[in-house]
Amino acid sequence: MAIIVDHVNYIYGQDTEQAVHALQDINLQIPDGQFIGIIGHTGSGKSTLVQHLNGLLKATSGSIYYNGQDIYDEGYNLKDLRSHVGLVFQYPEHQLFEVDVFSDVCFGPKNLGLSKKEVELRAFDALRQVGFPEELFYTSPFDLSGGQKRRVAIAGVLAMKPDVLILDEPTAGLDPKGREDILDMVKRLQQESGMTILLVSHSMDDVAEYVDRILVMDHGRVVFDDVPRQVFSHVEELEEMHLAAPQVTYILRDLKKAGIEVDENATTVDEAASTILQAFGKK
Amino acid sequence: MDIVKAKDLVFEYIRRDEEGNVEGISTAVDHVSLQVAQGDFVAILGHNGSGKSTLAKHLNAILYPTEGTVWVDGKDTSAEENLWTVRQNVGMVFQNPDNQIIGQVVEEDVGFGPENLGVPTKEIWERVEESLRAVGMYEHRKHSPNRLSGGQKQRVSIAGVLAMHPKCIVLDEPTAMLDPSGRREVIRAVRGLNDVEGITVILITHYMEEVIHADKIFVMDKGQLVMEGTPKEIFSRVERLKELRLDVPQVTLLAHELRKKGLPIPEGILERKELVEALRNLK
Ligand SMILES: Nc1ncnc2c1ncn2[C@@H]1O[C@H](COP(=O)(O)OP(=O)(O)OP(=O)(O)O)[C@@H](O)[C@H]1O
Ligand SMILES: Nc1ncnc2c1ncn2[C@@H]1O[C@H](COP(=O)(O)OP(=O)(O)O)[C@@H](O)[C@H]1O
Ligand SMILES: [Mg+2]
Ligand SMILES: [Mg+2]
Fold first, then answer.
1. pLDDT bucket at A145, cuts 50 / 70 / 90
2. Burial class (CB in 10 A: 0-12, 13-18, 19+), B95
3. Which end of chain A, N or C, is surrounded by fewer C-beta atoms within 10 Å?
4. Is B13 an interface residue toward A (CB < 8 Å)?
5. Is the CB of B181 within 6 Å of ligand 1?
6. Mean pLDDT of B176-183
7. Closest CA to B154 of B110, B215, B115
């Protein structure tokens, strides 16, 4: 089990008037190699939760174990944890600070104490993996378009070769092809290198398409924890939580209401197409 | 009458090193000519780095053409005497809801714009009220902005722009960081402004579903304008859009797949109810 979260609570500004109870009794088991999606309304606690998993925030109460070890133990090496659990922040511009794109991506691996050659090799690979144009390698990260900045931030974390990769809304601002490329790449990392992936996303369509398991957060709690098909069968509850089902799920529900016998819990375009074709006797 | 017109617009970003020597030039907008009629809802699509934001920044004189001309309501944006009218006629809303709100109270924030224009106090309050009502945020007028959800914050930003009484609003990825209901709220509010108040809307987005009701879509590729048409025209070219790193709405994609597999449904389906209707007619 890569990560265990045990009765974790987190309060921002404890002992102040503005105290916010951002995480309430979170319990999770995250096995190695799983691809997990996290969805929830803005302010539901997604970013707060993922920042606990690499030790950036410390739980107000409760414990977190990484590979069996309590990360709050005295003497536990949090810096080491951060190289194993890589986090791509929600706002990539907060993560970029070097003079040019290439140095920025080198920053993480350099801190791991690798040789210069290895560092540069990894940076080069990572930038290629996220589809960043080579002619922009030596421009300042501040002179990039929004989507280009996001790619650089993701490359910076990939270059650390983490065992667990956490992406906090990585596709916001990416063009459709970029969205697909990044998610395909992450899926490949999971399938080929057994990387554990946590993806925070506001795109129900993307989550349905890619992940094995979905955590739904609402006001600091995990309210559903299940496979996509099950989670998205709770359409009304999700809408009350400011979420939604994938677009195709709505179409299937409409068809079912119109008396066409389809599987109304399909969540991807492929599944939807096949159940509709079946209903029309074309298999 | 065209509210916005660009003729042979070229914009080059010039990159300089610390000593101020020119290191490189990138052409972000490359000979773009376009017209937007007063009262239209138009969308701009394009890959990351295709020049959308750069183009948008010309519409309220944040940037000036390197070559060519941009007119807003008939006035050349690069003539200094027009600066004030141009900025007043075209309001901008950006991606990040947290960077655009400065007031401590919602109504105060919305009042800043007209106050800076020197509008008399009584009229400021009238404008604040009508703008907040137009985006459905009037009940929150006394609240602190940092207590609002992302979608609510974006609607406050839009109200702030509305209070300046612009003829045109340019929204640069206003929903990129929002949860599903935030996105729905913002798009509904923007459509309302266009339908009810007749304000011209220029929406930049990477979410194809958000533009199916547009009067016209412009598509950019590497700084150039490469497609122009109604949503039906644009989204019936699935393969071409993929080449341009774009996509079609999920409904359109599903319809396209079903057609390919032999179900006789019409081309260019954009909405859920159209697809359901088409399938019902087959039964
Ligand atoms: N401040 C800047 N200095 C230098 N080059 C820039 C600057 N801002 C943008 N560019 C370059 O100009 C081109 C167009 O950028 P722009 O921000 O207009 O793209 P965009 O279409 O809005 O992209 P996105 O979808 O990622 O927001 C890109 O190649 C980008 O790298
Ligand atoms: N730095 C902070 N200081 C105080 N409160 C915060 C801070 N960051 C987040 N919060 C609050 O904690 C809650 C959870 O926020 P967050 O984890 O950012 O949610 P999400 O990522 O799901 O949008 C919200 O009520 C938010 O306002
Ligand atoms: Mg967040
Ligand atoms: Mg942009």
1. confident
2. buried
3. C
4. yes
5. no
6. 88
7. B110
Q: What are the residue ranges of helices labelled H in B9-61?
A: 52-59
Q: Which residues, other chains included, contact B93 with Cβ-Cβ below 8 Å and sequence gap of 6+? A: B100, B154, B157, B158, B161, B169, B170, B171, B172, B174
Contacting residues for A112 by C-beta, under 8 A, at least 6 apart? A83, A160
Chain A residues 51-90 with CB within 8 Å of chain B: none
The pTM of this model reads: 0.91
Substitution candidate for ligand 2 out of A14, A23, A48, A200 with most atoms within 8 A of CB: A48
Q: Where are the beta strands (DSSP E) in chain B?
A: 2-16, 22-37, 41-46, 67-72, 75-76, 90-93, 168-172, 200-204, 216-221, 224-229
B218 DSSP β-pair partners: B44, B228
Domain range summary for chain B, segments of one domain joined by +: 2-230
Please check whether residue B281 touches A, CB under 8 A: no
The closest alpha carbon to A171, from A144, A203, A196, belongs to: A203
- With CB atoms and an 8 Å threshold, state whether A244 touches B249: no
d(CA B178, CA A178): 18
Cβ under 8 Å to A: B residues 22-41: 24
H or E stretch covering B182: helix B180-197
Quick check: B283 pLDDT over 90? no
**B2-230 CATH pick, 3.40.50.300, 3.30.540.10, 2.60.120.10, 3.40.50.2300:** 3.40.50.300
> Edge to edge, what strands does the sheet with A61-66 contain?
A20-30, A3-12, A61-66, A69-70
- B260 interfacial to chain A (CB closer than 8 Å): no
The whole-angstrom separation of Cα B65 and Cα B246 is 27
Q: Report whether pLDDT(A93) > 70.
A: no
Please provide residue A120's backbone torsions phi and psi, each rounded to the nearest 5 degrees. Answer: -70, -35
d(CA A147, CA A162): 23
List, as one string, the DSSP characters of A36-81.
EEEEE-TTSSHHHHHHHHTTSS--SEEEEEETTEETTSTT--HHHH
Q: CA B2, CA B36: separation in Å to the nearest integer?
A: 5
Contacts of B82 (CB under 8 A, 6+ apart): B61, B72, B75, B76
Phi, psi for residue B227 in degrees, rounded to 5 = -145, 155
Q: Please state, in angstroms and rounded to a whole number, the distance separating the CA atoms of residues B281 and A227.
A: 34
Residue type, A9: N
The Cα–Cα gap between B12 and B66 comes to 6
Exposed e or buried b for every residue in B184-196, given b needs 16+ CB within 10 A? bbbbebbbebbee
Check: CB of residue B258 under 8 Å from CB of residue B251.
no
pLDDT tens by residue, B40-84: 999 999 999 999 999 999 999 999 999 999 999 999 999 999 999
Partner-chain contact A260 B48, CB within 8 Å:
no
From B65's Cα to the closest Cα of chain A, the distance in A is 18
Cα–Cα dist B122/A213, whole Å: 55
* B151 has a chain A CB within 8 A of its CB: yes
C-alpha B124 to ligand 1 mean position (Å):
36
Rounded Cα gap, residues B114 and B160, in angstroms: 9
| Alpha carbons A73 and A77: distance in angstroms, whole number | 9
